[in-house]
UniProtKB/TrEMBL annotation:
Signal peptide bounds: 1-20
Protein's recorded name: GTP-binding protein
Biased composition (Polar residues): 44-71
Domain DUF4015 residues, every copy: 88-404
Native organism: Paenibacillus montanisoli
Keyword annotations from UniProtKB, A to Z: Signal
Segments for region (Disordered): 44-72
Length: 410
């Protein structure tokens, strides 16, 4: 009886507000986004994919909602409760293991930036350092981009850098080619690939789940404090090609399969004291679930510590947020995207994760004359101001070449 009373009291506090919480990717985006919505958006750039966070649960706070057994109270814990507000940059394995790392560390030393998102499994599917882990070597192919990963981690620690391991999950050309049975095949037995010659592995296959989670677990042992999963989805336009491909599947919907992977990954990694984050298209906050690729913004967000919508202004087409050329108005575009994000996640209450968007620190010249502007200090500052004005104080900067605006107001 005492347990029931305690549960009811906790529920009362949540409902009345007395217990209220205070608190990437390379893609054929135009094809993908026209699957999600009618307005097109063009891009050729490789991508990953507050006030205090309004609904971020503090350790020990209770929450209720779907996804738990009837009559139970779900308690969400932040595995990194002492983590700072993250302001980070994307770092390729080539940069992390090469000479550019010195200048990137200096950038963090002299600015308020404090984190690096480093490729541990890259966009092709390679493990980016020479692992000796037999579990990973069964399916994975390591490279020596980061020749001495332990030495790199010590270097990050010396510079007080919060390390985040980026793991590209279902876009995995390497695994698809070496194990076609784990991928999507044409009827002639060949492995399907998109227009850029990239292949995906099958999110229905639990072997693929466990392989990526094993990489994440090794990253934790190396000292990474957060695992960021990217390409947590089916291939773009998948609903148009699924019937012509051969692959194993269950009766579950694609959105439920992807959400189940995220939930499973979270359950495997949280006991290790590491945060789990997921990159997702920024549009996902503004439109219904993308059934074709299996991404449901809300379902994914419920099972992660951090959600990172990729809200690059260059990726919104004419008319979004009442802006003719979103790339030319970064403040209005980011503000509109964040307002939609808050609105989308409000119904899940204390399941709401930290919102830490990817923002643009590159020039989208492919948009064509008159539709883009050169990005520098003013444009980066405008995006950060829009985040702050909508209660978001964490963000990640994306530049595929790892060249960042050093004098921005971070």
């Amino acid at each position: 009886m005492d347990v029931i009373v305690s549960a009811l009291l906790l529920l009362f506090h949540v409902l009345t507000g007395s217990g209220a919480q205070t608190g990437p990717q390379s893609a054929s985006t135009q094809q993908l986004l026209t699957t999600i919505m009618t307005a097109p958006a063009a891009q050729q750039q490789q991508l990953p994919n507050g006030t205090a966070q309004p609904n971020q649960t503090k350790p020990g706070e209770a929450q209720t909602g779907t996804g738990t057994s009837p009559g139970t109270i779900y308690v969400k814990h932040d595995p990194q409760p002492d983590a700072p507000e993250i302001k980070g940059i994307y770092v390729t394995a080539h940069s992390a293991g090469g000479s550019r790392m010195e200048s990137l560390l200096k950038l963090l030393d002299i600015t308020a930036l404090n984190s690096m998102v480093i490729d541990v499994k890259d966009d092709y599917g390679y493990i980016t350092y020479p692992t000796q882990n037999p579990e990973l070597l069964k399916l994975g192919k390591p490279k020596k981009y980061i020749g001495n990963v332990s030495q790199m981690m010590e270097r990050l620690k010396k510079h007080n850098v919060y390390p985040i391991a980026r793991i590209v999950v279902f876009k995995d050309t390497v695994l698809a080619r070496s194990h076609p049975e784990l991928s999507f095949r044409r009827h002639d037995g060949s492995v399907w690939q998109n227009g850029k010659k990239d292949s995906f592995v099958n999110p229905y296959r639990k072997e693929v789940w466990d392989y990526n989670i094993a990489i994440a677990k090794e990253a934790v042992k190396l000292g990474f404090k957060e695992i960021q999963f990217d390409y947590v989805r089916f291939p773009e336009g998948f609903e148009k090609k699924a019937d012509s491909l051969v692959f194993n599947k269950t009766k579950d919907k694609r959105v439920d399969t992807i959400a189940a992977f995220v939930k499973y990954a979270k359950s495997q990694l949280e006991p290790l004291g590491v945060r789990v984050s997921v990159d997702i298209f920024g549009y996902a906050a503004s439109v219904p679930a993308a059934e074709g690729i299996g991404q449901d913004f809300v379902k994914i967000s419920k099972h992660v510590d951090v959600i990172s919508p990729m809200v690059y202004p260059s990726h919104y087409s004419t008319g979004w947020f009442n802006v003719k050329d979103p790339d030319k108005n970064p403040y209005a575009t980011i503000k509109g995207a964040m307002l939609d994000t808050h609105k989308k996640l409000k119904p899940i209450g204390s399941y709401k994760p930290i919102i830490r968007p990817w923002i643009q620190d590159f020039t989208a010249s492919w948009l064509g004359k008159g539709h883009y502007i050169k990005y520098g200090k003013a444009e980066v500052d405008a995006q950060i101001k829009a985040l702050n004005d909508t209660g978001i104080h964490e963000y990640l900067l994306w530049n595929a070449n790892n060249r960042y605006t050093a004098d921005a107001n971070f």
